[in-house]
């Protein structure tokens, strides 16, 4: 595993210089490698994990289980892509088991999400069943704990 | 009221410095000799689970057999040395207790024990408390903080009983290569000595894999291997270490242990088993992060043009500050003027004078801020 990716996955704001110091490369080489990753699409984007509730914003999320009858020769991809194109849809996964797709939908309120599902999602050809679970509270997102973090209780100086 | 022996030993130099730091809440510290990580959750969770199941009793004086077996397997896997879990491993309350037991088990009055310095603060005092004579063996930055076999040879008398060594080293971050270890092992055999090897930082090496003294030819029987869970698994507060040696030594050590400690806490022992079973991934992640911080610290110290030996293990850098002032004055002024805590090198033996210990077991943000402040401090001294 490339250490640059490991470092950036945890914190996208670490400077080139800091990364260079940590892995014993010079700044230019680090920049070049990151640019290459961006170009190849290995690094998709640098984004921020935000606790919207903490920021005082009302946002509502729902996980929607979707059943699909796949298309001959194309499987689930075409429909999954179609669903992914909606800006309200934040995540789409193909799953094993009872349902086919798991879709994370974001909205201003429950009504908006309910409307999106009944009007847009459930009406897509070959989608024959949906179950909607509204998210009540987020505890952890993108590997980040959203509640109060624990801290070390070390003394200031120790042997 | 107190004994001459106790009167004779000085309080830890670190303790002295701690008194200075305490109460100052705006201090950023690179003075901590323990991981900044909290113990990985799987390990903590298993301790909670063991409490729920009612594990609240004493254990065998030797410690839980399950833990000794896990340690035996781990040592065998790493070094190829087999310690019989039933007779050759003793679970202790941290490596500190293991060290004290090792010394008390082998020391007769007036026995001389050679201590390679700079070293952990308890090595000499425990020898004094046991009635033995600690014999300092100073090492220097020029020699990579590693002794030569000649230097050891020069200090051996007919009273010499043992040599105390700890690599990867606290406070220098030095490691010892296999060739040098073999030379030392030859001397230990030649003079029929015991080697006490504190390898608590053994997992924390960044270039080469650590080699255990007991894995060298013929050394298992002469080595008292000390190790524990504190550093590698971020478990300092759990107080779990172990002593591995031949049956005779372990038999002796367990006598002292049973009359002083009885046993290490069962909850911590249960957690230690889990650490071996499932802690490897978390450990490797922590080690990779220490390595990044190590490079960062070394780079910054080099840029400040401090004389520094590249640390290859543990989580300390040990730069020379000789050209500025003595260790204590430097550390005290750095603390007072820039609010950064480091530990004066002379706390680890006289040859540590002129150095300070910088711990990089701190968050990157802390390290960067502290390095900026140390840089500014050095500039102010130059003016």
From TrEMBL, chain A:
Keyword Transcription listed: yes
Gene Ontology terms for molecular function: sequence-specific DNA binding
Record domain HTH asnC-type: where: 1-58
UniProt feature coiled coil, ranges: none
Pfam hit, one: HTH_24
This protein's UniProt keywords: DNA-binding, Transcription, Transcription regulation
The keyword Lipoprotein is annotated on this UniProt entry: no
InterPro entries noted in UniProt: AsnC-type_HTH_dom, Dimeric_a/b-barrel, HTH-Siroheme_Decarb, Tscrpt_reg_AsnC-like, Tscrpt_reg_AsnC/Lrp_C, WH-like_DNA-bd_sf, WH_DNA-bd_sf
Matches recorded under PANTHER family: HTH-TYPE TRANSCRIPTIONAL REGULATOR PTR2, TRANSCRIPTIONAL REGULATOR, ASNC FAMILY
Designated name of the protein: Lrp/AsnC family transcriptional regulator
Biological classification of the source: Archaea, Methanobacteriati, Methanobacteriota, Candidatus Methanoliparia, Candidatus Methanoliparales
UniProtKB/TrEMBL annotation, chain B:
UniProt subunit comment: Homodimer.
UniProt cross-references to Gene3D superfamilies, sorted A to Z: Aspartate Aminotransferase, domain 1 (3.90.1150.10), Type I PLP-dependent aspartate aminotransferase-like (Major domain) (3.40.640.10)
Assigned EC number: 2.6.1.-
Biological processes annotated in GO: amino acid metabolic process
Start and end residues of each Aminotransferase class I/classII large domain: 26-374
Keywords per UniProt: Aminotransferase, Pyridoxal phosphate, Transferase
Cofactor(s) required, per the database record: pyridoxal 5'-phosphate
Superkingdom, taxonomy of origin: Archaea
CDD domains: AAT_like
Family statement drawn from the similarity comment of this UniProt entry: Belongs to the class-I pyridoxal-phosphate-dependent aminotransferase family.
GO terms, molecular function: pyridoxal phosphate binding; transaminase activity
Keyword Methyltransferase: no
Regions annotated as coiled coil: none
Name this polypeptide is given: Aminotransferase
């Amino acid at each position: 595993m490339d250490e640059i990716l490991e470092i950036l996955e945890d914190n996208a704001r670490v400077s080139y210089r800091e990364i260079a110091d940590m892995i014993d490369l010079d700044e230019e080489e680090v920049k070049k490698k990151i640019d290459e990753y961006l170009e190849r699409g290995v690094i998709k984007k640098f984004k921020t994990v935000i606790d919207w509730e903490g920021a005082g914003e009302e946002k509502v999320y729902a996980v929607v289980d979707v059943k699909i009858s796949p298309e001959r020769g194309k499987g689930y991809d075409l429909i999954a892509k179609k669903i992914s194109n909606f800006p309200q849809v934040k995540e789409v996964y193909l799953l094993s088991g009872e349902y086919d797709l798991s879709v994370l939908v974001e909205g201003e309120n429950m009504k908006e999400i309910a409307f999106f599902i009944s009007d847009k999602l459930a009406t897509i050809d070959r989608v024959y069943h949906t179950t909607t679970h509204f998210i009540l509270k987020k505890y952890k997102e993108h590997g980040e704990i959203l509640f109060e973090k624990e801290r070390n209780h070390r003394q200031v100086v120790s042997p | 009221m107190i004994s001459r022996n106790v009167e004779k030993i000085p309080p830890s130099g670190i303790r002295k410095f701690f008194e200075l730091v305490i109460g100052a809440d705006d201090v950023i510290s690179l003075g901590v000799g323990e991981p900044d990580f909290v113990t990985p959750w799987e390990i903590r969770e298993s301790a909670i689970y063991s409490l729920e199941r009612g594990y609240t009793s004493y254990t065998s004086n030797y410690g839980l057999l399950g833990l000794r077996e896990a340690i035996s397997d781990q040592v065998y896997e790493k070094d190829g040395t087999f310690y019989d879990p039933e007779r050759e491993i003793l679970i202790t309350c941290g490596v500190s207790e293991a060290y004290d037991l090792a010394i008390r088990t082998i020391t007769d009055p007036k026995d001389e024990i050679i201590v390679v310095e700079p070293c952990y603060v308890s090595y000499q005092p425990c020898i004094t408390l046991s009635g033995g004579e600690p014999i300092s063996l100073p090492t220097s930055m020029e020699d990579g903080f590693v002794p030569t076999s000649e230097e050891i040879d020069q200090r051996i008398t007919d009273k010499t009983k043992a040599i105390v060594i700890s690599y990867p080293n606290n406070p220098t971050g030095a490691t010892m290569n296999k060739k040098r270890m073999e030379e030392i092992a030859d001397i230990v055999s030649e003079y029929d000595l015991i080697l006490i090897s504190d390898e608590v930082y053994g997992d924390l090496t960044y270039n080469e894999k650590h080699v255990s003294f007991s894995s060298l030819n013929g050394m298992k029987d002469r080595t008292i291997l000390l190790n524990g869970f504190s550093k590698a698994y971020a478990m300092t507060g759990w107080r779990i270490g172990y002593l591995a040696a031949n049956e005779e030594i372990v038999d002796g050590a367990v006598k002292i242990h049973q009359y002083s400690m009885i046993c290490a806490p069962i909850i911590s022992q249960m957690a230690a088993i889990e650490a071996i079973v499932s802690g490897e991934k978390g450990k490797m992640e922590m080690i990779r992060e220490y390595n990044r911080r190590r490079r960062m610290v070394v780079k910054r110290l080099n840029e400040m043009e401090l004389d520094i030996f590249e640390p290859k293990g543990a989580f300390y850098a040990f730069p020379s500050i000789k050209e500025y002032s003595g260790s204590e004055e430097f550390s005290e002024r750095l603390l007072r003027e820039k609010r950064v805590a480091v530990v004066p090198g002379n706390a680890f033996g006289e040859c540590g004078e002129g150095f300070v210990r910088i711990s990089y077991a701190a968050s990157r943000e802390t390290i960067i801020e502290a390095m900026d402040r140390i840089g500014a401090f050095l500039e102010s001294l130059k003016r």
